[in-house]
């Protein structure tokens, strides 16, 4: 099967998004807030290891002035539509100018950032402009003359400062790489979210489009082709949520297709019937099975599941072939029934949510060697079990959900789900772990 699947995978598959997300201005503010300690740690490590002469373009005379304290008092990130981000950092420095004198100085850094796609397909934050400025805030020695304060009015070593800004981006870029990690859905099935291009920047936030791929036993599988291209919907208004994830109807179809290919939906159901109890109504059973054995149902998908999203509701249609038989470990089938099961959910499924509503069996067709069986008897004997056990076992597979697209170190909180026609929105907040 794996060899056949590999032959079916096109050499250059069409790249089109099936999900994505919008980082809102609220989310950007949260990122800036939680980035302050990291920025302060990096700048402290780098700046306190330097002397005054390293940081400023002063006279060539040796300087023994030393930066001994660094505190980030302000860090903000703002959107530049159609371009990128603006990083604004205010750093309070304590500079020792003499054994008993420390000058308080303010280093202001203004940097423009944009996002690029690396050759490996990862997103990278890059500095496109950097402008530092320095001013003296106060002197700890009141007897110091105004002329002495002019000594700090020097040209900043821009290259040195902007190098430190680049170092601030190392950790965020390491986290961004984790976006394309393979996440487990089940032990035999993994999902991967791949960015298709650099994000788009607008007043509404940062929009990224993703393409989902699935691996079964480590091999990529060819997913059904989406009938319509998916694009990230624009938020109707400013959202208080940090991020809004969006999943297309095609995303769900691909997910269930992958789980079907992995065999995760194949199930064996033990019924309350035995061959002896069935022989009371079906006399032929006595000749087929001399010993009393429990009656089993083995269900496999005969075609791919279908997901349909409408305003406020979602439906999952399953097309199963159920073999009815007995005997373990040697299963002997004596009946094959095709069953269509529909699970419906109103407004609040998780992105890979369970099948919570009792399904309806919409059609049945028996292919049997026992031609005397009637459809009504089949329904009485097996449909209640199918109605109860099929969604229960689906829920076992889906109970853990799947990993949503995310970067390492952050988790989602305050999650809500809004179902629309053809797609699902998941507004949520971010929390640094």
UniProtKB/TrEMBL annotation:
GO MF: lipid binding
Name of the protein in its database record: Protein TENP
InterPro entries (UniProt xref): Bactericidal_perm-incr_a/b_dom (IPR017943), BPI_fold-BPI/LBP (IPR051660), Lipid-bd_serum_glycop_C (IPR001124)
SUPFAM superfamilies reported for this sequence: Bactericidal permeability-increasing protein, BPI (SSF55394)
Entry keywords, A to Z: Signal
Range of residues in the leader sequence: 1-16
Domain Lipid-binding serum glycoprotein C-terminal stretches: 237-428
Species of provenance: Buceros rhinoceros silvestris
Organism taxonomic ancestry: Eukaryota, Metazoa, Chordata, Craniata, Vertebrata
Lineage top rank: taxon: Eukaryota
């Amino acid at each position: 099967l794996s060899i056949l699947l590999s032959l079916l995978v096109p050499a250059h598959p069409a790249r089109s998004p099936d999900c994505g997300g919008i980082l809102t201005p609220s989310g950007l503010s949260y990122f800036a807030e939680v980035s302050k300690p990291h920025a302060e740690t990096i700048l402290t490590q780098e700046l306190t290891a330097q002397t005054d002469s390293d940081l400023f373009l002063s006279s060539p005379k040796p300087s023994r002035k030393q930066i001994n304290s660094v505190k980030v008092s302000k860090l903000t990130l703002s959107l530049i539509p159609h371009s990128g981000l603006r990083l604004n950092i205010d750093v309070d420095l304590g500079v020792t100018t003499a054994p008993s004198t420390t000058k308080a100085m303010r280093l202001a850094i203004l940097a423009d950032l944009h996002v690029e796609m690396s050759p490996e397909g990862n997103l990278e934050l890059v500095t496109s402009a950097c402008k530092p400025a320095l001013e003296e805030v106060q002197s700890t020695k009141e007897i110091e003359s105004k002329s002495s304060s002019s000594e700090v009015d020097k040209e900043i070593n821009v290259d040195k400062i902007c190098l430190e800004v680049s170092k601030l981006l190392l950790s965020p870029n390491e986290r961004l790489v984790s976006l394309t990690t393979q996440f487990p859905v089940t032990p035999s099935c993994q999902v991967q979210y791949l960015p298709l291009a650099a994000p788009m920047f607008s007043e509404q936030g940062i929009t990224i489009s993703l393409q989902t791929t699935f691996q079964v036993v480590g091999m990529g599988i060819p997913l059904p082709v989406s009938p319509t291209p998916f694009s990230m919907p624009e938020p109707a208004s400013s959202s208080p949520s940090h991020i809004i994830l969006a999943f297309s109807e095609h995303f769900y179809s691909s997910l269930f297709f992958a789980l079907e290919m992995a065999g995760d939906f194949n199930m064996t159901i033990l019924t309350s019937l035995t061959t002896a109890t069935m022989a009371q109504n079906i006399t032929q059973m006595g000749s087929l099975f001399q010993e009393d054995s429990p009656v089993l149902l083995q269900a496999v998908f005969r075609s791919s599941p279908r997901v349909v999203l409408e305003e406020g509701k979602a439906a999952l249609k399953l097309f199963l072939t159920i073999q009815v038989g007995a005997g373990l470990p040697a299963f002997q089938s004596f009946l094959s029934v095709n069953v269509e099961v529909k699970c419906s959910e109103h407004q609040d499924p998780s992105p890979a949510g369970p099948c919570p509503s009792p399904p309806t069996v919409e059609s049945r067709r028996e292919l049997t060697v026992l031609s005397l069986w009637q459809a009504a008897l089949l329904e009485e004997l097996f449909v209640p079990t199918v109605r109860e056990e099929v969604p229960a076992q689906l829920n076992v597979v889906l109970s853990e959900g799947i990993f949503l697209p995310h970067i390492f170190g952050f988790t989602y909180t305050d999650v809500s789900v809004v179902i629309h026609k053809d797609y699902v929105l998941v507004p949520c907040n971010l929390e640094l772990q």
